[in-house]
From TrEMBL:
Entry similarity comment: Belongs to the short-chain dehydrogenases/reductases (SDR) family.
Leader sequence residues: none
Organism encoding this protein: Amycolatopsis rubida
Gene3D superfamilies with a match to the protein in the record: NAD(P)-binding Rossmann-like Domain
Domain Ketoreductase: from-to ranges: 7-182
Record key words, sorted: Oxidoreductase
Protein name: Glucose 1-dehydrogenase
EC number: 1.1.1.47
UniProt KW Oxidoreductase keyword: yes
Alphabetized GO MF terms: glucose 1-dehydrogenase [NAD(P)+] activity
Pfam families: adh_short_C2 (PF13561)
Length: 243
């Protein structure tokens, strides 16, 4: 079992799905975990469910709020070792149907939100010259997907936040990696038609949808010392699916 005792971790969008499973997995490995959600009472409930030390309200599109919260967590615990920039949204639209609103919300949440979180994490970790950051890319960002141009573009950007930040932060002892999940059974994919799910399963060598816990375990590996020489990588967690 990966040992994260003594580590302080922050997970954004931790109220459900992959974020909640990650908060649980990090806490089980011994880390002190703070999770965030857009709604304070939901965040507190999720923190209790994940055995996290706190659940705080945070909208990742608000750069100032992200910076203040991350600084506050690092101050309260004396350091910040692990940050998982998980908060994200997905809305499908064919090219001809894409509205400006969808572009704004998707890019401000997935791209700017991840960027704010990585920036704030790097500032907090810089003082101790150690830390591990994981961002949530997607298989769709690697291969593209019809009807998901905006989401795919946002997740390609997220993968490149990891690759670029890793280059910039390596000499400060900070590792940055991404996971690129395939189709994971969470609220995000709950709206997928049954035949689309069946089609994905048929094309997945491991012949099932992923579970949030599958992704959480990969994230736990990447933030642990088991991955001490791994940085700037985008790790597929997709059962072998190629889109
Ligand atoms: P989910 O919808 O179950 O959870 C997303 C979380 O992000 C929620 O807690 C939500 O409240 C939070 N969030 C959304 N916008 C936010 C904002 N502005 N500020 C703060 N929090 C915000 O989705 P999930 O499946 O658990 O996805 C988690 C991450 O993994 C996302 O970035 C998603 O794009 C990515 N991902 C998911 C899949 C999948 O198949 N489920 C595949 C690839 C990538």
């Amino acid at each position: 079992m990966t040992d994260l005792s003594g580590r302080v971790a922050l997970v954004t969008g931790g109220t459900r799905g992959i974020g909640l499973a990650t908060a649980k997995a990090l806490a089980e490995a011994g880390a002190t975990v703070v999770l965030t959600g857009r709604d304070e009472s939901r965040a507190k409930e999720a923190a209790a469910a994940a055995s996290a030390s706190a659940g705080l309200a945070l909208d990742v599109t608000d750069a100032k709020a992200v910076s203040t919260l991350v600084r506050g967590v690092a101050k309260e615990h004396g350091k910040l070792d692990i940050v998982v920039a998980n908060a994200g949204i997905m809305e499908d639209a064919l090219l001809g149907m894409i509205k400006e609103d969808l572009v704004d919300t998707t890019l401000s949440t997935n791209v700017a939100g991840t960027l704010h979180t990585v920036q704030a994490a790097a500032r907090a970790m810089m003082r101790k010259k150690t830390g591990a950051i994981v961002v949530l890319a997607s298989i769709v960002g690697e291969y593209g997907s019809a009807g998901q141009t905006v989401y795919a573009a946002s997740k390609a950007a997220v993968a490149n936040i990891a690759r670029s930040a890793a280059k910039e932060l390596g000499r400060s002892g900070i590792r940055v990696n991404a996971v690129a999940p395939g189709v994971i059974d969470t609220d995000l994919t709950a709206g997928l038609a049954e035949d689309a799910k069946a089609d994905n399963i048929a094309r997945t060598p491991l012949a099932r949808l992923g579970a949030a816990e599958d992704v959480a375990k990969a994230i736990r590996f990447l933030v642990s010392d088991e991955a001490s020489f791994v940085t700037g990588q985008v790790l597929g967690v997709d059962g072998g699916l190629v889109l």
